[in-house]
C-alpha cells in the first residue's frame, strides 16, 4: 500500500506504508501503463510503440487512490492506475550492482561435496510440485538428475516434453553415446573426456543437454559435472586481469566433421552481460579453433588465463560425480555446467542417448508454475 505520492512534470515520488520511497520517470510510467489501450488484456503485450508516446510527455497529476498510484499524463489527459505491489516489484530507483563477473540472483554455485539435485520419474511426470522442484533445481544449480525412468530407447524425448521441445541439430533430434569395451571400432572407446560444454561452435549454442542411460554394465564411466560459474568465480578472484581477458576477447570454435557441415562461432570463453553479470561459459578443447582476436601483446597473458581456468576446471575438488543406472538421466545448463566422463574398461557396455533443448522453455514452464495459485500448482 502507498502512503503518499508527489510529482513534478517528469518524476513521481511515492512512499510505501513501510516508509520506503522510490521514484519513477513520466516516460517510463507511460510506456509501462497497464490500461487496455496500452497493453492487451489477454497476454499483456504492448499495443503502442515508443513513437506513439508524445515526446513532451509529462505528469499533470498524481495521487494515492485506494492504496495504489493514480497518474494523469499530459498532453494526452490520460489517467492510469498502477498497483502498489506492481510498483514495488518493478522499482529501478535503487543501488544496482555493477560488480564485474557477478552471479545473477537465484543462482547457487557449487563444487564437490554437494548432493546432486534429483527428481523421481513417476513423481515428476505426475505431480506438479515434484516437477516444479526439479525444474527449479536446474534453474538454480544448472543441473539435476532424474531417476526411476523407463529403459526404452527415445525415453529422453519424454524428459524434454516435461518443459519444452527438442532442439534438432545436424546430429538429428537425438544422438547415440554408445560405447563398448573391447570395441571393433575406435568410435566406441571407453576413453575419458575432459569437462566441457557441448557445441560451442554453434551460435546460439544449445542451452540445455539431456543425457539418458539405457545400459551401463561397464566398470567406471562415471559422469562428472563441473560448475563453470564457480570456476569463473575462482579465476576472477585469483586472477582478475586474466578473467577480464577471457571475458573481453572472443575465442573461436569450429566443427566440420561431416559432409555439408561447417559450424563456426566467435564468442568469449567467459561471457558477461553489458553490465558485468556472468551469463555463459564456453569451454571445449576439442572444438577450439585458432584464437586470432587477441592483440599480440596480450596473447601470452590470455593463454596463461586459459590454462589457469582449465586447471580450475580439472581440479577434482570441483567435480560432482555419479554413475547413471539404466533409466536414469541428467540435464545440464549447457551455458554454465560442464560435463565429463571417466574412462572405463573391463567387460560390459555403456549406452546413453543425448539430445538438446532450450533453457527458455524450461524457465517459462517454471515461471508459469510459480505464478499459479498453490492449490492449482499442486
TrEMBL record:
One of its GO terms (biological process) is carnitine biosynthetic process. Residues 8-87 form the Gamma-butyrobetaine hydroxylase-like N-terminal domain. GO terms for molecular function: gamma-butyrobetaine dioxygenase activity; iron ion binding. Residues 119-356 form the TauD/TfdA-like domain. Keywords: Dioxygenase, Iron, Metal-binding, Oxidoreductase. Its cofactor is Fe(2+); L-ascorbate. InterPro entries: AlphaKG_dependent_hydroxylases (IPR050411), GBBH-like (IPR012775), GBBH-like_N (IPR010376), GBBH-like_N_sf (IPR038492), TauD-like_sf (IPR042098), TauD/TfdA-like (IPR003819). The keyword Acetylation does not apply. Its EC number is 1.14.11.1. Pfam families: GBBH-like_N, TauD. Belongs to the gamma-BBH/TMLD family. PANTHER family: GAMMA-BUTYROBETAINE HYDROXYLASE-RELATED, OXIDOREDUCTASE AIM17-RELATED. This is Gamma-butyrobetaine dioxygenase. It comes from Falsiruegeria litorea R37.
Amino acid at each position: 500500500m502507498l502512503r503518499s505520492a508527489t510529482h513534478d512534470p517528469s518524476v513521481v515520488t511515492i512512499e510505501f506504508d513501510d516508509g520506503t520511497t522510490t521514484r519513477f520517470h513520466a516516460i517510463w510510467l507511460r510506456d509501462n501503463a497497464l490500461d487496455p489501450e496500452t497493453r492487451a488484456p489477454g497476454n499483456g503485450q504492448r499495443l503502442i510503440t515508443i513513437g506513439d508516446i508524445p515526446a513532451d510527455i509529462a505528469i499533470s497529476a498524481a495521487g494515492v487512490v485506494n492504496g495504489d498510484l493514480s497518474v494523469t499524463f499530459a498532453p494526452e489527459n490520460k489517467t492510469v492506475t498502477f498497483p502498489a505491489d506492481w510498483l514495488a516489484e518493478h522499482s529501478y530507483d535503487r543501488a544496482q550492482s555493477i560488480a564485474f563477473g557477478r552471479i545473477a540472483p537465484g543462482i547457487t554455485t557449487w563444487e564437490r561435496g554437494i548432493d546432486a539435485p534429483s527428481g523421481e520419474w513417476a513423481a515428476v511426470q505426475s505431480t506438479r510440485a515434484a516437477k516444479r522442484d526439479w525444474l527449479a533445481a536446474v534453474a538454480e544449480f544448472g543441473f539435476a538428475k532424474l531417476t526411476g525412468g523407463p529403459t526404452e530407447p527415445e525415453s529422453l524425448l519424454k524428459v524434454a516434453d516435461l518443459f519444452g521441445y527438442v532442439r534438432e541439430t545436424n546430429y538429428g533430434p537425438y544422438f547415440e553415446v554408445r560405447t563398448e569395451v573391447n570395441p571393433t571400432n575406435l568410435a566406441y572407446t571407453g576413453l575419458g573426456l575432459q569437462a566441457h560444454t557441448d557445441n560451442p561452435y554453434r551460435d546460439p549454442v544449445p542451452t540445455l543437454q539431456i543425457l539418458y542411460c539405457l545400459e551401463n554394465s561397464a566398470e567406471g564411466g562415471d559422469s562428472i559435472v563441473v560448475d563453470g560459474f564457480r570456476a569463473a568465480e575462482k579465476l576472477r578472484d585469483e586472477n582478475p586481469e586474466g578473467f577480464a581477458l577471457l571475458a573481453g576477447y572472443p575465442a573461436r570454435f569450429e566443427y566440420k566433421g561431416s559432409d555439408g557441415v561447417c559450424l563456426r562461432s566467435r564468442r568469449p570463453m567467459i561471457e558477461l552481460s553489458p553490465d558485468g553479470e556472468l551469463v555463459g561459459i564456453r569451454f571445449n578443447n576439442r572444438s577450439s579453433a585458432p584464437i586470432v582476436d587477441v592483440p599480440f601483446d596480450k596473447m601470452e597473458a590470455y593463454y596463461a588465463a586459459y590454462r589457469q581456468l582449465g586447471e580450475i576446471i580439472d581440479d577434482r575438488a570441483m567435480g560432482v560425480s555419479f554413475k547413471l543406472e539404466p533409466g536414469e538421466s541428467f540435464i545440464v545448463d549447457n551455458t554454465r555446467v560442464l560435463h565429463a566422463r571417466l574412462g572405463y574398461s573391463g567387460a560390459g557396455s555403456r549406452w546413453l542417448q543425448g539430445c538438446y533443448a532450450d533453457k527458455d522453455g524450461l524457465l517459462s514452464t517454471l515461471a508459469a508454475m510459480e505464478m499459479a495459485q498453490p492449490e492449482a500448482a499442486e
